[in-house]
Amino acid sequence: MLLCRAMRPHKWSLHLPLFLLCVVISCTGIPRVFTLPTSAMEPTILLEEKFSADMTRFQPLYGELIIFEHEGLLLVKRTIGVSGDVLEGRNLQVFLNGKLLDEPYVQHIGKHPLFLKSLENFGPISIPAGKLFVAGDNRDFSLDSRDPSFGLISVSDIRGKPIEILQSPKPGRVHTILH
To answer: Which residues, including other chains, have CB under 8 Å from residue 114's CB and lie 6 or more apart?
Structure first.
């Protein structure tokens, strides 16, 4: 008489669904939450606001907010110039390919104690392939591509983009969609 033994699943088959779920979560750009510790992106994102972010890599367009890695830190800035562009700063105004940029999101609220002259006037800078010129919206408090020590960023350093304000010390800003 032949007895049939119940088939037991292989030990790896029990872990496979969990492994696949982890792979899907890490690759799908599930939103993450961040807090901005500086005023460099005001008035778009205020100091200490919590915002959600889509951590999917993408190719940004002019004026888009991006999250990127720079010297081991994740930073938020706005894309001002892309490959092939020439940017120049004169008296706190930015010229893209010879034309004054319309930047309604920019504010100047006074000079930061460490404000560098290179942030007022810079360039012209030609943006090579695979690089971006980024700047904060609060130009007086943002260290960004205007300064040679910060420089251009690589497109490969983009990690995602801010999506929505989730918590704010200022009433009426929660659920504001970020552009």
So the answer is: none
- Give pLDDT, residue 177: 85
User: 173 pairs with which residues across the strands?
Assistant: none
Parts of the chain with a pLDDT under 70: 1-30, 110-118
Strands 99-100 and 122-126 turn out to be unpaired
Q: Regarding the domain delimited by 32-167, which CATH topology (the fold level of the hierarchy) does it fall under?
A: Umud Fragment, subunit A (2.10.109)
Tracing tokens 């104690």 back to the chain, one arrives at 113
Residue 96 dihedral angles phi and psi, to the nearest 5°:
-110, 115
Phi and psi of 113, rounded to 5°? -55, -30
- Residue ranges covered by each domain of the chain: 32-167
- Cα–Cα dist 50/10, whole Å: 44
pLDDT for 19: 36
- List the end-to-end C-alpha distance of the chain, in Å, as a whole number: 74
